[in-house]
Structure formats: C-alpha cells, structure tokens
Design the sequence.
C-alpha cells in the first residue's frame, strides 16, 4: 500500500511528537568525550538497538528519503526530469502548491530539522536543486537558475528577450497562443496579472511578459522557503545564513554526495590493529575501487547515514572520526562478516586473507543488512553459511 505521508511517515510522526516542543529543547550543549551529540532520542520498535547516535543519524537519512518519495506533498521533481533534458534531472524543488497551513507547518518543521542537523553534525541527504539553497541564503537568482531546473521555460523566455528591440513581426510559433500566464513546477498555471489568461503575449508587450514570468518562476517557492527559514531561525540565529553561500548551507545540512577515500582515511583511527597491517592495506585498496554508491552504502552500514562531512575542517568541527577495530573472534577470519557500531562509526574488520574475500564479505554485509537490529545475525553470528 502506498505510504500516507501526512499520517504514516516517520517525518509526520516526528512532526506530531516534536513540533510543539520549545525550540530551546533542541539546542543541547555538546557533551564531552565520546558521548553522542543528539538533540532528541529516537526509539525504534522491533529492533534491539544499543546506543543513541546510530538511530538518531538513521532517522535523518530516512526522513530525507520519505520527503523525496512520490508520496511526499512537500517536494516535486524538477521539470527537467519530466522532459528528460537539461541539468538537475535527479533533483527536487519545493512544491509551490503546498500552501495549506498544515503543509507550511511541515516545511517549518523541516527547517527546524535542518538546523538541528547543522548543530549536532547529523545530515539530511536531500537532493534539492541549487535554486532552493540560493533562495534560502538570499543569493540573487537569474534565468540561468531557471534553466537548471526548467530548460524549456528558460529557453522560451530567453528567446523572447533576445528578439530585436524593435521587432514588430509575429512571435515564434510555440508562443503564438501564449497568454499572460505561466506554468509552475508542479504543473499548475498562474496568471501573471489580473485576467492574464485573456491577455495575449505580443511583440509589443513581450518584455513585460518576460519580466513577470521570470519573477513568478524564480519566486514560486518563496512561501515554502519562508517557512523553512522560520524553522531554521527557531534553533540557530537566522543571520548565520547571511554568512553562507548556497553551497555552504547545502553541505552543512546534507553533507557531500561524493565520498573521498583519502579524506576518510586521514580521519580513521585504529583499535587493536596497526594501520600498516596487511588486511588494513587491503581494505583501503578495496575502498578506493568501490563505486560512489558502494562507498555510500558502506558508510551507511557503519554510521547509519550515507554522507560524510565535506572536508577536513568539517570532520574536525563535527568531531567525526572513523575507527577500524580488530576482530577478537576465534576461528578462520574468512568465515566471518564484518560488524559495525553505528553509534560510534566503528567497523570491526576480520583479518581476511585476500582482497577478493574481503570485498565479497563487506559487500554482502552492506547490501543485505538493512536494519540496525543487533539480532539480525551480522553482528554476532558466523555468517559464512550464505556461501554454501
């Protein structure tokens, strides 16, 4: 059965449980030592999970997936995806039609989650178009930003704008029946002036049309952006956004989609095993060979979120480190799967005899284990039986 986002999603459940709590409660002081830095506790039903940080990070990952799902009333794919052309075909925009009080309150809650993630080092891996982030930090937006999400609309407006200034002839055929209306990213049509649906675009009024259409399309998400900013400002000073570029904000909220093996290696500690041990060297050779998707799956297996801090400075700011621990289990290491402690970003890695065996075991673990249940078998059972 399709997910009923407003009633059944994790996002909606969190909205109901946390939406009325004072924002002050979401501004915890960073604890010392290795204590998890969380703004609230996530309890999972039906899973024997130990620790706070793993479920907390997984919550942000999973609500991002829900918000980008077909069931979500908050986002829409860019028009370029619908048309199969141009840039940003795998990205999303805020739904300009989501203007009910309930949905705007959900956008405000989403903004609150953005700010909580920024404070606590969690990540909300939303694939939002640059246009959204630019609006959030109030960077100027132009026809190029529209082209990135709606190639055909931008091309039509650019074509009108590029006609000779004293052009008096007929407009291009595709604009012959164009009125003073514009189609938004959600497919709805909006009038650009009173009775705009009855006013044709002509050579004489084309510049007015282009100006109004660009303003409408580039600002179609303003109501939703304002709600998100309100949520952000309830947890952190909203003035901080004025000090950021759109890319800074995206990275602070979402992390980076590309995982750099060398950055991760620089921020890796070792417990019970030397950094130059043969199987550790095999591990890093294997990780370098992983695709980006496999790297993200691996990070999620170890840390319950699939993105890492963007650079060395962000690793330091968020006090993030990866740790590889020696396996203390007796027997042939090649018979065992790796295990992870998602609360602390730890991987227990058996001393496999070859890179091929290590790759097979690790890929099996990250592809098959989809819960954090300590009873799912990976963490405490010999799982060599899958190779029978």
Sequence:
């Amino acid at each position: 059965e399709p997910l009923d986002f407003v009633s059944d999603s994790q996002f909606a459940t969190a909205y109901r449980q946390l939406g009325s709590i004072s924002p002050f409660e979401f501004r915890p002081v960073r604890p010392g030592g290795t204590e998890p830095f969380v703004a609230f506790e996530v309890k999972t039903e039906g899973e024997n999970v130990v620790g706070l940080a793993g479920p907390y990070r997984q919550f942000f990952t999973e609500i991002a997936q829900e918000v980008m799902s077909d069931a979500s009333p908050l986002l829409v794919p860019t028009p370029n995806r619908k048309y199969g052309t141009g840039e940003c075909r795998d990205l999303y925009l805020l739904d300009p039609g989501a203007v009910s009080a309930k949905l705007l309150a959900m956008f405000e809650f989403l903004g609150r989650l953005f700010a909580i993630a920024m404070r606590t080092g969690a990540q909300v891996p939303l694939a939002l178009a640059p246009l959204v982030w630019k609006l959030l930090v109030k960077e100027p937006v132009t026809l190029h930003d529209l082209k990135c999400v709606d190639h055909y609309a931008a091309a039509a407006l650019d074509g009108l704008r590029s006609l000779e200034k004293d052009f008096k002839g007929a407009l291009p055929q595709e604009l012959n029946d164009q009125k003073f209306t514009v189609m938004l990213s959600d497919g709805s049509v909006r009038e650009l002036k009173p009775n705009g649906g009855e006013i044709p675009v002509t050579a004489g009024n084309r510049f007015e049309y282009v100006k109004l259409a660009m303003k409408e399309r580039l600002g179609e998400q303003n109501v939703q952006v304002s709600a998100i900013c309100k949520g952000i400002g309830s947890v952190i000073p909203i003035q901080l956004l004025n000090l950021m570029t759109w890319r800074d904000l995206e990275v602070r909220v979402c992390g980076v989609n590309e995982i750099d093996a060398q950055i991760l290696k620089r921020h890796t500690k070792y417990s019970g095993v030397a950094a130059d041990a043969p199987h550790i060297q095999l591990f890093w050779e294997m990780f370098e060979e992983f695709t980006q998707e496999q790297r993200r799956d691996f990070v999620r297996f170890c840390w319950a979120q699939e993105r890492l801090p963007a650079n060395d400075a962000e690793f330091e700011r968020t006090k993030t480190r990866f740790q590889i621990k020696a396996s203390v289990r007796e027997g042939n290491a090649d018979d065992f799967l790796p295990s992870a402690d998602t609360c602390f970003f730890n991987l227990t890695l058996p001393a496999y005899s070859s890179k091929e065996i290590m790759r097979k075991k690790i890929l099996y673990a990250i592809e098959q284990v989809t819960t954090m249940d300590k009873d799912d078998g990976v963490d405490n059972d010999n799982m060599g039986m899958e190779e029978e």
